[in-house]
Amino acid sequence: IGQPYEETWPMLLEKKLNEPCIKIAQDGCSNDLISQRVEQLKNSYKPRCIIIVWSYFWRRFRYGKNVHFDKDARELPKHDLQNFVDNFIRANINPSCKILNYLIPDCMIESSSSWLKLRSRKNKKNLLKLLEYKYPKTDFTNLTEIEQLDYARDGHHFDISTCQKVVDDILKKY
Fold first, then answer.
1. What contacts 77, CB < 8 A, 6 or more positions away?
2. How far is CA 58 from the centre of its chain?
């Protein structure tokens, strides 16, 4: 991603806590697979806290692998939003530990060209307000949008300043 491993938020958190953190992240992972892994993690390790950083809403787990833009059955953005909410609920139902949820910056953006347009816009949509409006019966109080303060060398992922802010937020809620 263009960022040194020791400057990623899980490594910064591990350093601040002075104890190991189990990391189950995977490049290009879909929210479908993230929610499945959270269930496995809750059942296998009995952690005190799980921190979920949700991926782009359009990513899916199909045919046994993570896919981008499922060309066989492309779903509309409204379906992407519903798929995220379904996975969010699945991961957060009956928590056996504290669960903190984070949304990556611009998680609704579908392509690098629209990502660049949104990145330059001053007034980004507040996704939490949209989720609360569309899904009033779902509790999103433990969901936080990550504000991107800087960019890694790839010009896309966030870098150390954003990671440090995420870690500070986790420690406040932990």
1. 57, 58, 108, 110
2. 12
Report the predicted TM-score, pTM, of the whole model to 2 decimal places.
0.86
Nearest alpha carbon to residue 134 among 88, 93, 98, 97: 88
Instruction: Map tokens 């800087």 to a residue.
Output: 150
Helix, strand, coil share (%) of the chain residues, nearest 5? 45, 10, 45
Q: Which residues, including other chains, have CB under 8 Å from residue 131's CB and lie 6 or more apart?
A: 81, 85, 138, 140, 143
Q: Which amino acid is at 71?
A: K
Q: What is the pLDDT of residues 93-103, one digit of tens each?
A: 988 899 999 99
What is the band of 69 on the pLDDT scale with cuts at 50, 70, 90?
A: low
Tokens of 105: 């910056």
